[in-house]
Design goal:
The protein is α+β, with helices and mostly antiparallel strands. It has helices at 11-22, 28-48, 52-55, 82-95, 114-128, 137-157, 169-182, 187-198, 216-236, 253-256, 272-275, 290-303, 319-325, 334-337, 341-351, 361-364, 367-374, 382-389, 425-443, 449-456, 459-464, 467-472, and strands at residues 71-72, 79-80, 102-103, 107-108, 310-317, 376-380, 398-404, 413-415. It has 2 domains: 11-275, 2-methylcitrate dehydratase PrpD (Orthogonal Bundle); 287-418, 60s Ribosomal Protein L30, Chain: A (2-Layer Sandwich), CATH 3.30.1330. Helices cover 50% and strands 7% of the residues. Helix 15 (341-351) crosses helix 17.
């Protein structure tokens, strides 16, 4: 059912639908970075499957249910209907807190949308492979660029966190828009799907904050991506939308959910987000702790033989780090630990490295970690906060200095931009490639490694592949 012509459509909904259905992406740089985003996300999703808490959520909702010519979940033998496949793929990508990020007024992970993009693309490509022209990897990279853009641009100026809300809702919105387009939907059908995605309601941020942090923060992305696919499929069946879903007084999203704050697009939709995305290399940790980890890594040689002599660990950071990752007292689970700047810094100071395994109970039982956490003094540096919010800088600064019992101190280490920041691309991109290779070698059968690496070795080679052929390379 099309949008009624005598009803006003919110401009944000129209702009998203126009971008999804009409915009041509022409910048080669966007496609080059989209390739890295795809490899990085697959690396995260494959690595997560070694963790039982993630693996138990994957697969058909009803045991044994599969779909011939359905969507594959990389790293598994599952072939599922696209809604559950979207949940599985996005959940695995997000699970280890190692996926790419973006920060505006609010922060998020653009790759959260890839469950919808990859699942729908694989489903469509397989459905068309017997006659019609299926989707190529190039088509999917275009969808990735657009999903990233909608997701990230919605986070530039819309401030969900200060209202106590999680920004995960924009994952459903971006997923709905691009899934509808990939399924062949029109401008009006995209409006219908996206408006329904907005109306899914507010998500309190409780499960990401402080000692309430729990595993839902890892599968919330999968839930949102799958909701986006549901709305896309419904729109293609004729489900109507709500063209004034955002602006209707009292009952619309802006008034009813956002306390009167309007939903805005922070910039014109193009390919800005994918070209400026922030990668997490080499530390699997919340993004605000990345530079803290790097500070600790540089200090590790100076303290590894003097841990018992440490009196204080002085850390300067910005306000968002304190809001998101400053925690004292017991940390009950891995989800709480990977969002604790003191825990992350303690592990790196002690070990000189950090892996996802370091958040598990058997590592956290090392009493030296909590002893060191208790010695950490974390304070806000107002300039760091200002620079974090400065759109020209978008720094993510942490500084660290160790004070010993004898009164001596290490030099203070200050790092403004993490390795994965656009300002450090030459350092980051080889590490993304390494991250991908390690994950493939750890999870996929050895006989598949060469074919995977050959296919992914260059943008030129990769983008020509039929997408379902590409996804078959990652089946276990």
């Amino acid at each position: 059912m099309p949008v009624s012509r005598n009803r006003r459509t919110d401009k944000v909904l129209s702009d998203i639908a126009r971008y999804a259905t009409k915009k041509r992406i022409t910048r080669k740089a966007a496609y080059e970075m989209a390739r890295y985003c795809l490899l990085d996300s697959l690396a995260c999703g494959l690595s997560a499957q070694a963790h039982p808490d993630c693996a138990r959520l994957l697969g058909p909702t009803v045991p044994g249910a599969t779909l011939a010519n359905g969507a594959r979940v990389p790293g598994t033998a599952y072939c599922l209907e696209p809604v559950k496949a979207a949940f599985d793929i996005s959940t695995a990508i997000r699970w280890l807190e190692y996926s790419d990020t973006w920060f505006g007024t609010d922060g998020g992970h653009p790759s959260d949308t890839l469950g919808a993009v990859l699942a729908v693309a694989d489903y469509v490509s397989r459905a068309r492979s017997n006659g019609e022209t299926g989707m190529s990897v190039r088509d999917v990279l275009t969808a990735l660029i657009k999903a990233y853009e909608i997701h990230g641009v919605l986070l530039i100026k819309n401030n969900f966190i200060d209202l106590g809300l999680d920004g995960i809702g924009v994952v459903a919105v971006a997923s709905a828009a691009i899934a509808t387009q990939m399924l062949g939907g029109s401008h009006d059908q995209v409006v219908n799907a996206v408006s329904n995605a907005w109306l899914d309601g507010a998500s309190p941020r409780l499960y990401r904050i402080g000692h309430n942090a729990g595993p839902r923060k890892a599968w919330a992305a999968g839930d949102a991506a799958s909701r986006g696919v549901i709305h896309a499929l419904f729109a293609l069946r004729g489900e109507p939308g709500y063209p004034a879903a955002l602006t209707t007084p009292k009952w619309g999203v802006s008034d009813a959910v956002l306390h009167g704050n309007p939903i805005v697009l922070g910039r014109a939709l193009d390919s800005h987000i994918v070209e400026n995305v922030l990668f997490k290399v080499p530390f699997p940790a919340q993004f605000h702790t990345q530079t803290a980890s790097e500070c600790a890594l540089r200090l590790h040689p100076l303290v590894k033989d003097r841990v018992d002599d440490i009196k204080r660990v002085h850390m300067r950071t910005h306000a968002k780090t304190l809001q998101s990752t400053y925690k004292t007292g017991p940390l009950q689970n891995a989800a709480s630990r990977d969002h604790c700047v003191q825990y992350v810094a303690a592990i790196v100071l002690l070990q000189g490295e950090l892996s996802s395994e370091d958040y598990e109970d058997h590592v956290a039982a090392d009493q030296r970690i909590d002893v060191l956490r208790d010695k950490m003094v974390v304070t806000e540096d107002k300039q760091f906060t200002k620079d974090f919010y400065d759109a020209r800088k978008r720094s993510n600064t942490n500084a660290m200095q160790i004070e010993f019992r004898d009164g001596t101190r290490t030099p203070e280490v200050l790092i403004r931009y993490p390795i994965g920041h656009p300002r450090r691309r030459p350092e980051a991109l080889p590490l993304v490639e390494q991250k991908f290779r390690r994950s493939v070698e750890a999870i996929l059968p050895r006989r598949q490694h060469k074919a995977v690496f050959d296919a992914c070795s260059s943008l030129t080679r990769l983008q020509r592949l039929p997408f379902h052929t590409f996804m078959d390379l990652f089946s276990a």
